[in-house]
C-alpha cells in the first residue's frame, strides 16, 4: 500500500528496509522525544524486530516514510481496544536530516485523512512530550487542536515532563 505525499510516500514495510531504518533511527535527538520502547542506540536487531510484525499488518496502520526508496521515518496509528476502538493514537518520527521541510506535517495530514476516510475512525489523538515544541507545531500546522496539558505526566531520561494532548475529530 502507498499514499503519495509531496516529495515522499507513506508505504507498507519491506524486509529490505532494515538498513535505512537503522541508519535514520539511530539518533539520540529522535529517541529523546519518543517512548522508552524506542531504543537508543538503534541496532540492526531492533530494526528487524520492528519490521517483522509490520509485514503482516491488517489493517495497515504503520507506514514507512519513504524518500527516494529509503526509509527516513515512521508514522503510525495505534489502534486501541474497547471504547477507544474508533480513536487511535498517532505517533511519528522523521530523520533529523529532513526536519523543517514540511514532510511530517504533510504525512500527518495524509494519515489522518486515511484514518477518517479508509479506516472510518472518528478521532485521532496525539500526545507530545512537553520539551518537543517542534512536534506540537507539526500537529498545529496539520490542523490538530491542543486539547490540554497533563502536568508532570511523563518521565523521560530522568526528567519529569508535561504531556500535551492534541486531537482532531472527523467532520
Summary tags:
three-stranded antiparallel sheet; 5 helices; five-stranded antiparallel sheet; 171 residues; 8 strands; GNAT_dom; alpha+beta; Aminopeptidase
- The secondary-structure element order is EEHHHEEEHEHEE
Report the uncertain regions.
none
Percentage of β-strand residues = 25-35%
Most strands sheet: 5 strands, antiparallel
Query: Average pLDDT value?
Result: 97
Rg (C-alpha, Å): 15 Å
CATH architecture: 3-Layer(aba) Sandwich
Q: Helix segment count?
A: 5
Judged by helices, strands and strand pairing, the structural class is alpha+beta
Number of strands: 8
Task: Describe the overall structure.
This protein is an alpha+beta fold. The chain has one domain: Aminopeptidase (3-Layer(aba) Sandwich), CATH 3.40.630. Helices cover 27% and strands 33% of the residues. It is built from five helices and eight strands. It has helices at 18-25, 28-31, 44-54, 103-117, 133-141; strands spanning 2-4, 9-11, 62-67, 70-78, 89-94, 123-129, 145-156, 159-169. Strand 7 (145-156) and strand 8 form a beta hairpin. Helix 1 (18-25) crosses helix 3. The chain is globular. The mean pLDDT is 97. It comes from Mucilaginibacter frigoritolerans.
SSE diagram, text form:
Blueprint (H helix, E strand, L loop, with lengths): L1 E3 L4 E3 L6 H8 L2 H4 L12 H11 L7 E6 L2 E9 L10 E6 L8 H15 L5 E7 L3 H9 L3 E12 L2 E11 L2
Antiparallel strand pairs: 1-2, 2-3, 3-4, 4-5, 6-8, 7-8
InterPro entries: Acyl_CoA_acyltransferase, GNAT_dom
Keywords: Transferase
Pfam family, one: Acetyltransf_3
